[in-house]
Amino acid sequence: MKKLNVVLMIGSAPDALRARTWDLCAFTSCVVINNAWQITEAWDYLVYPEDFPAERMPQAALLAQQKCITAAEFVPEQNRFGGFVYAGGTMSYTAGYWALGALQPDVIAYLGCDMVYPKVDGQGSHFYGQGQADPLRPDITLQSLEAKSVRFMALAQSQQCAVVNLSELSESRLLFPRVPFERFALTSDQPDFLAAQAGSLKTKAVAEALQAEADLGYMVASGRYWEVADQLDKDKLAAIDSLWLTAWAPKQL
User: Fold this and answer.
1) Burial, 46: exposed, middle or buried (Cβ in 10 Å; 0-12, 13-18, 19+)?
2) 132-162 burial by CB neighbour count: b if 16+ within 10 A, else e?
3) Distance between CA atoms of 239 and 144, rounded to whole angstroms?
4) 162: β partners
5) Is the pLDDT of residue 189 over 50?
6) Residue ranges per domain, the chain?
């Protein structure tokens, strides 16, 4: 059996700390978002935005296999998949689309990217303490985080890539199918995530959503969509989100 190219995507939710105890040999590469490089030294790619504070970057020399991914790399990849306006302008999706295009994986497995921020006594919103809930900021591209997750699965499916969520939280804004980490620890007989994902996506609805995006024509090649936000129609984007939500009819993996 061909060894799958499996990308682990780690965000900053407290749940992401589980990766510290994992044997990451089950994954071909590990992509960390923003501060998540602090969780494990076994990361390969650090994806961060232009406004990420320099003092939060790794201060020690990077290991030979490690590489930082900036807007110079992720904006072109994002544009290949329709651009930031339709994909959702938050790093969980930006890093995902970069990985989808640049790494050409068979599976992308998310951890710590649920984009929920429960107020629990003694626990911060992020693994490092209290952080800014970037996906929840007022932003015309983030009206439905759930719809953006369906879009990502559909675009991944078109690239023959499955997307799953390793989270153990009770709630998630990601609609990716939940899969326990132990299923990736297997050395053989990897489940066919791609076929299961295909069975959950409604082909006609996906086509309708993509056509609606094309008809609207919101492409900001620079990636700086906020500079032209006043030219974007909130209601038309919300209607496209609704189309994406109708495209997902989940089945058990």
Assistant:
1) buried
2) eebbeeeebbbbbbbbbbbbbbbbbbeeebb
3) 10
4) 107
5) no
6) 6-246
Contact indicator for 146, 119 with CB cutoff of 8 Å: no
Dihedral angle of Cα 112, 117, 120, 121, to the nearest 10 degrees: 100
Distances (CA, A) of 147 to 35, 126, 131: 25, 23, 24
Task: Give CA separation, 104 vs 28, 97, 157, 179, 192, in Å.
Answer: 11, 10, 12, 21, 17
Q: What is the pTM of this model?
A: 0.90
Residue 79 CA to its chain's centroid (Å): 15
The mean pLDDT value for 5-24 works out to 91
Distance CA 50, CA 73 (A): 12
What confidence tens digit (pLDDT) does each residue in 160-176 have? 999 999 999 888 999 99
Give me 215's structure tokens: 């008809």
Q: Which amino acid is at 150?
A: V
What is the average pLDDT across 98-106? 97
Q: Using 50, 70 and 90 to split pLDDT, how confident is the model at 208?
A: very high
Beta strands per DSSP E along the chain: 6-10, 29-33, 45-47, 67-69, 107-111, 162-165
Dump pLDDT digits (tens) for 114-153: 988 765 545 554 444 455 656 556 689 999 999 999 999 9
- Residues whose CB falls within 8 Å of the CB of residue 86, separated by 6 or more in sequence, listed in order: 141, 151, 213, 218, 237, 240
